[in-house]
Records
---
Amino acid sequence: MSEPLIPPKKKDPLLNTRAGHVPPALRSRAAKAMAARAGQGRFVLQACEDCAHVTYPPRDRCPKCWGALTWQDQPRGAVIEAETTIKASTDLFFRNHLPWRIGSARLDAGSMAIVHLHGDVNQGDRVRMEIKLDRGGNPALFALPEKETLNMADDPQLRVFTADPKYRRILVTDGRGPVGQAVAEALVKAGAKTVFLGNNDRLMRYPGQEQIEAMEGIEPVPLSIADSRSTEALAAQLGGRVDIVVNTAQHTRGGGVGFGGKLSDLQTGLDLEVSGLMRLAQAFAPAMSGRSDDGTNAAAAFVDVASIFGLSGKAGYAGAAAAAAARLSLIAGLRGEMAQTGIRVMSVLTGPIDDAWHQDIPPPKTAPVQIARAVVSALQQGQETICAGQVAKEIFGRWQADPLLTIREETQ
Ligand SMILES: [Zn+2]
């Protein structure tokens, strides 16, 4: 079993915050290709097209026959053949996290690999392998116990590779809608210390308000990300106390491009969803970046919940799809910037949400609880891109196989 995580003590304001170094970057194209797949939770390794040899770490050609390599999903099992504990390192990141256990694993996929070890994994054990992204976004093999162990997620080495909500303080931007409320509730249940729940109009009551605000761990805060002053004021007030930001803002209205769409709806949507995302990032990202290695409740992640139709467009919802497309682009840019400072940036992709604004779309739709589950899972796994519910999964699968065909299918 792992030692249970201890709730962090109040911080001594006179102490320096530990600088958030990130592990050294892997710059090869093959390493980036592995990271892109690992970010979706897949376990992939390169296999040779000629001799079928499976190889790790990522490289450009087969080390046995010089053949071309392709990425393939692989079995996750392995056996740990040797282990060692690193007690000294010149790397700035690892120096702060010593001692650090690694081992060599014989992968069921057919090759040997140097891997990071969970505290409950020992020499000779059968393990379950995952490809985790380190805080700089580089892929690394991590060996987990084959079966769930007590306090497994609290393992200090594993926690470096995730953004687990346990004991963290989290801002959810829009508490007025069912998505924000479901996300807030799920985060409290997953062990978050505090969920700051945004409300853009304190004078107007909203459905579900009494119930969600009465919940232990929920702290309502005034926030309108459509307003720079409101966003900056909250960031100044919460200062260095937000470890995770989850943006659930959305403004979905029906209408086409040349037919039936209202320009005012488009402008409101772009201001809230696109400019709003940038306001939020500019207000919170710098302070978070300074606290990315600040102990148990270090700042860890920036999560954006956006429509899957940002990838494909959507007939009858042109403006909403355009706002989602811009969000996905901004999030990709932010991910690159935050990787330098050790904060994870995640996208939760949703299908049409089961609410009043998607009445014209036939079922199946995505329920707010499915989105909440995806947010918690992405944080617990350290996953970059995750689909909430079947509709988003199905569209994402088609889009990966053939992006242009999916655009045609969704817009014609
Ligand atoms: Zn080969």
---
Amino acid sequence: MKISYVTAALAAIAVGGVVWVAQAAPADDVKARQAVMKEMGSNVGAITKMLKGEAPYDAAVAQKSADAIAAAAKKVPDAFKPNTGDAGPTEAKATIWSNWQGFTDKATALDTEASKLADVAKKGDQAALAE
Ligand code: HEM
């Protein structure tokens, strides 16, 4: 009988551990998607600085940054896990998941535009890039 109590106690601890892990994951999901967005931000920033004349124009950097924006855009759907709308400090709105198609459409649109930007950057024409 005693053994079964011990077994039950261990099982409870094990289950508790699993629950704890399951609860910790959504907050990490939020951090991970925010990291994807920071990646977007830093690469848009790199291009913007060049176009504003705050950094020397460098076609290779523009192309690399545009590629990174497109790559980050491709990560968007997977980075927004279900049931993480209120998991930790987040700006994400519930409409992301209630209108999932609309959300992923925007990510796809950004991917398309970033690919065009990378193509323009490849030509090394600063004016075309600005346009
Ligand atoms: C070049 C385009 C984009 C830039 C520069 C950008 C930048 C950012 C930045 C800097 C943040 C704040 C991250 C943080 O809290 O540390 C953010 C958050 C967010 N972005 Fe973007 N983003 C872009 C495109 C997109 C796209 C295409 C989507 C969706 C289709 C999107 C959805 C979101 C959402 C939902 C958040 C809130 C995330 C959260 O707090 O959990 N963003 N973005």
---
Amino acid sequence: MKRITGTSFYSFAKCPRLAALDLHLDRKERRPPHPWEEFVARRGREFEAVFVRDLGALEPQYPERDFAAGALATLALLQRGVPWIYQAVLRGEHRLGLPDLLRRVPGASALGDFHYEVVDVKSSGRARGDQILQVSFYSRLLAAIQQRVPEHGALVLKDGREERFLLADYAAAAANVDQQLERLLGDVAGARPFLAPACDSCHWNHRCVPELQARQDLSLVQGMSHGARAILESLGVNTVAELATFEPEGARARGNLDAVLIRKLRRAAQSMLLGKPIAEPRPRQAPLEPAAIVHLLTDPWAGRVLAFGVLSPAREDGAFAWARPASRADEWRSFLQLLTALPRAAQLLHFGEALPHWYEEQAFSREADVGTAARFVEIGRRLRSAAAYPGPVFGLPELVRHGLGRDPFRFGHGGAAAMWDGETAAEGLLAAKLRGDLLDLAALKQQLLDVADAAPAAATSSVQTS
Ligand code: SF4
């Protein structure tokens, strides 16, 4: 019998289809986790174990997966009033909650002159909505047992900080998700797949992505939203091919969708059928010369930079250099060392906000050269708007895949970099990944930005114009 769990709330926030598949399919049917996903999960478990160790929390003892026995053992601990309970088992009608911690707090309940509240240990740096909803779910199950709704729930974040919040503030949202999950429990088809950034790390992507491709689903089109897909389907536009030739006359015929949006979606659908980007006309922009490209690999968990790399000049035949800081304290020195080798007039092209955010944080406590930040030029936005791509572009990997036709992970997945850091072959792996990303960025710049700046209407070998 499938049950709604705390994980269902987390999954639902990520993607309703994920929650539906989790509720209906056997775990064995999930794709196996990638090594870096296991690495991240292991770090989370280790952090939790260290945090819990010093609390002296008691854990209910029961035969593996016998949750009925687990719930009884939990009730015994609750009635004893022990200060902390680790991995309690809370059951409700087809619902099962396994919160990390229950904490005894003052205030009468069916248990005595005290009651409990839920504390979950998370490996993120800040509290997220899905985590709060999980705690709300556990708290509802706990309330039924102790016959008192706890006022607060809490999250312990990776820096050990506790964020305590009023459950009443989230009660309506939690009840709403609970209702949606109840609906999905009875109907797996109640949530359709939609290609989104979350699909990359999802354990059902081996099912959803081929399914979407087989029926040429509109969510495969760059720039598509749930709402636009629903409206287009109501107008009889159900596939990429149908969208590629959709030329509605008037606002009603296009379902009152914006005419510019329809044009963009149609171009993206055409790009998909062509299998290559279609250059978009755009206003002439300041030339990106002279320039170098700067890139970094990070360990988000540890909040540190693993390696910086530069390619100068910003071309595929540019010279590659890189630096690997020994520690967080060494990051600033490593970065400046790389910069000193670059021409002072060179713009520093980078992808996304990681570099300026890091720089701002570091420069705050130092006498930083004010001119350096002014040299940063973010090229992600320019690249996204430079063409209609044959697939949704969420980040650098999709730009590389759809813009260049290259495998963005041929030198490894960025998420694995933190794992390499502890390996003996780390030097080679980090350098190869940095260099590969820099060469891809240089190729994207040359093929999509430089060509368009030089001659907006010209066709190149890899960029189709129309
Ligand atoms: S692969 Fe994507 S659409 Fe499918 S369940 Fe996962 S996140 Fe949802």
---
Amino acid sequence: MKKIGIFYGSSTGVCESIAEKIAEKLQIASSDVNTPDKISSMAANYDVLLLGSSTWGSGELQDDWYDGLDALKNVDLTGKTVAFFGCGDSSSFCDTFCDAMGLIYEGIKDKGCNFVGRVSTADYNFSSSVAVVDNEFIGLALDEVNEDYKTDDRINAWIESIRPSI
Ligand SMILES: Cc1cc2nc3c(=O)[nH]c(=O)nc-3n(C[C@H](O)[C@H](O)[C@H](O)COP(=O)(O)O)c2cc1C
């Protein structure tokens, strides 16, 4: 069984509750669900990293991810499996929807990990996002502001898509 760790950044609790929901569905212990300040001390312990961030400002990382991403860049990620999830607002911030997922991906894309969990953009209404790579979201984009009724189905489909790899 691969060891899975979740690291999430959340300013008002939305991405935190998504992280907890994903953990529950994958039966990940709460001790393996942490904020990015724990990356330096804990990330090396895991085979699989599920990385979550909300997006703030105009397409910026959630605050905890500034240091978190620097820390992640210093972890040996070779051979690890990585998947992303993010929370945003596709209506008010349609030009920067869930950008933070893309920013984290940009920061670690050359570190030798195996990225899983891309999601089709077809079910979303937005204009642009740096989380879109080769016409797909690099991870699970969620919009609890406008489309919370879609969240459970989106999480379930994403989990099924990554399950064979984790
Ligand atoms: C000031 C402000 C800026 C935001 N900027 C963005 C943005 O650029 N892109 C986006 O998708 N969502 C943006 N959002 C929406 C948040 O990402 C969304 O509310 C999210 O659910 C917050 O999650 P959290 O509580 O885990 O931090 C913004 C929200 C606020 C209040």
